[in-house]
Design a protein that fits this description.
alpha/beta, binds BIS(adenosine)-5'-pentaphosphate, about 220 residues, five-stranded parallel β-sheet, 9 helices
Length: about 220
């Protein structure tokens, strides 16, 4: 199965993708994660992407589509893909169609997480992850069970994303409204979009996504 998780920054795409990976053995293809890894490794892609990401703007379509194509090639044909944060423009949506066709895959579902933007700013600014295993937490909604210790791996090191400040988040949201939301009609026309209330509790959102995958 191949699915796209769509929604503005902080809608919960990464949170839900991680659960699908755990429950179904699918692979999460997050262009944001791939770009952050490239920035950390200081690859040519990372050097080009760093300042763009810090401003909250979009990296070029060609770069992200090449990253996705390479990941699908490395995965092989039998593992389901969760596209998280990709496609983000009409050009990327077109490129994804071509990439999937080359890999003999088809899109099964597009899930849009519908959310209230002002609440998202709070969600994003409070977000942090385990520096060792990447487990996600939140200052208000999801603290580690033991303060300062990762539930999953026991690490005591945590980190926050450099683009998780209010100014950059507002730019990321404006980019979503201007360039990403307009691609939904492409998938609506194919009858594969399901809209889910992303303001519901994390478990409730997961249950709704599971219903869609089972349908
Ligand atoms: P990317 O990494 O994709 O970031 P994003 O789309 O801005 O999304 P986030 O990761 O911020 O949010 P999310 O929806 O995954 O929410 P999460 O689950 O973490 O992109 C970063 C940058 O890279 C872009 O700005 C761009 O520069 C570049 N880029 C990436 N892809 C690109 C592309 N295709 N083309 C061009 N450029 C690209 O949840 C957020 C918080 O809320 C967490 O703390 C979580 O615990 C909490 N939470 C989640 N769900 C709920 C809930 N239901 N209730 C309460 N709390 C919740």
């Amino acid at each position: 199965m191949n699915i796209i998780l769509l929604g503005p920054p902080g809608a919960g795409k990464g949170t839900q993708a991680a659960r699908l990976v755990e429950h179904h053995g699918m692979r999460q293809l997050s262009t944001g994660d791939m770009l952050r890894a490239a920035v950390k490794a200081q690859t040519p892609v990372g050097l080009e992407a760093k300042a763009i990401m810090e401003r909250g703007e979009l990296v070029s379509d060609e770069i992200v589509s090449k990253l996705i194509d390479a990941e699908l090639t490395a995965m092989g044909p039998d593992v389901g893909a969760i596209f998280d944060g990709y496609p983000r423009t009409a050009a990327q949506a077109e490129q994804l169609d071509a990439i999937l066709a080359r890999h003999g895959r088809k899109l099964d579902h597009v899930i849009e997480l519908e959310v209230d933007e002002d609440a998202l700013v709070e969600r994003i600014i409070g977000r942090f992850t385990c520096a060792n295993c990447g487990a996600g937490y939140h200052d208000i909604y999801k603290l580690p069970k033991v303060a300062g210790v990762c539930d999953k791996c026991g690490s005591t090191e945590f980190k926050r994303r450099p683009d998780d400040n209010e100014e950059t988040v507002r730019t990321r949201m404006a980019e979503y409204r201007a360039k990403t939301a307009p691609i939904l009609p492409i998938y609506d026309a194919r009858g594969i979009v399901t809209r889910i209330d992303g303001m519901a509790a994390i478990d409730t959102v997961t249950d709704r996504i599971e219903q869609v995958l089972a349908s």
